[in-house]
């Protein structure tokens, strides 16, 4: 009996290595999809930011924008010595508080109502976005008529209760209240839909367990909904803070003046920057104001984030 050895198997063939040009294309192709975004961001975001910082150290006038004279920190010193800057800064904070706090509270309440199974929920959610889709100019002009002194609807309603007409455009708090109403009307529905999306991401098992334990709807809202909505609330607060710091269209169109009223009673930082650049033609000073606003936004966003992290750390330690 003879034994025959099996024939040796053929060695496995290695896959041919791609050519260097093909390997380069494979490595570069993912970045080519991102290139349009970064190109647009560099052209319309990064370059204006850097150029504004560059211009802020020069004396540049709108009539002779090609002539620049080095001024160093002079534009920033002139801003901080101007009392109208501090008025605009104070108005920015007060308008932000008057518009942001009621806006977020109303949005949270509306989102909580829309989270239930109501008839026509899709219709109500669509209606929520209509103020946001409305033009800023159209909304502001309508509210300016509503808050008119002689023929405004608001003063007419107040007269039915025996209240004398209010001059909404000359008083400090009255004009800021009127401008805040425009902001609240435009952005409440938008934030309500953001809160609604956050509520729908909360597991339903938590509500069922709370209901089994005998928790009322109010207790479910405070002990289940609000803790689950904390990241969404932080996001909404940060975005509202940025929007309040950049408030421009509503106060500009409310009376049609960049001064923000007779005594600058509702002039924001955005209006102050516009007035310096396009009314007084000081482009270098306007660029400095833009950078002050940018740093202020970074400070406020960082403060909000720090407070949110500390609150989360405290609750985790419990």
From TrEMBL:
Residue span, ABC transmembrane type-1 domain: 89-304
Its Gene Ontology cellular component terms are: plasma membrane
Could you tell me which CDD domains the record lists for this protein? TM_PBP2
What residues form the membrane-spanning segments?
31-54, 93-114, 126-147, 288-308
Where found, per UniProt? Cell membrane
Give the UniProt keywords, A-Z: Cell membrane, Membrane, Transmembrane, Transmembrane helix, Transport
Classification via PROSITE patterns: ABC_TM1 (PS50928)
Q: Which family does it belong to?
A: Belongs to the binding-protein-dependent transport system permease family.
Q: What is this protein called?
A: ABC transporter permease
């Amino acid at each position: 009996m003879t034994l025959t050895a099996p024939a040796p198997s053929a060695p496995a063939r290695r896959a041919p290595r791609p050519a260097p040009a093909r390997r380069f294309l494979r490595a570069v192709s993912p970045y080519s999809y991102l290139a349009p975004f970064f190109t647009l961001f560099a052209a319309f975001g990064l370059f204006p930011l850097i150029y504004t910082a560059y211009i802020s150290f020069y004396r540049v006038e709108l009539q002779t924008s090609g002539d620049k004279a080095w001024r160093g920190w002079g534009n920033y010193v002139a801003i901080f010595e101007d009392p109208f800057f501090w008025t605009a800064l104070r108005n920015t904070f007060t308008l932000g508080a008057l518009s942001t706090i009621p806006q977020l509270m109303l949005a949270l309440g509306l989102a909580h109502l829309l989270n239930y199974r109501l008839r026509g929920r899709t219709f109500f959610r669509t209606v929520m976005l209509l103020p946001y889709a409305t033009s800023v100019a159209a909304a502001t002009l309508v509210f300016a008529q509503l808050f008119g002194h002689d023929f405004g609807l608001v003063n007419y309603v107040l007269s039915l209760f025996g209240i004398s007409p209010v001059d909404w455009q000359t008083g400090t708090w009255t004009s800021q209240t009127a401008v805040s109403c425009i902001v609240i009307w435009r952005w409440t529905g938008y934030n309500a839909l953001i809160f609604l999306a956050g509520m729908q991401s909360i597991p339903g098992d938590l509500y069922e367990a709370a209901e089994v334990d005998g928790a009322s709807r109010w207790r479910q809202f405070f002990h289940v909904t609000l803790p689950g909505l904390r990241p969404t609330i932080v996001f909404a607060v940060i975005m509202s803070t940025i929007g309040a710091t950049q408030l421009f269209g509503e106060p500009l169109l409310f009376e049609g003046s960049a001064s923000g009223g007779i005594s600058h009673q509702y002039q924001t930082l955005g209006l102050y920057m516009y007035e310096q650049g396009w009314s007084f033609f000081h482009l270098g000073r306007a660029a400095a104001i833009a950078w002050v606003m940018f740093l202020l936004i970074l400070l406020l966003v960082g403060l909000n984030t720090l407070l949110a992290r500390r609150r989360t750390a405290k609750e985790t330690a419990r």
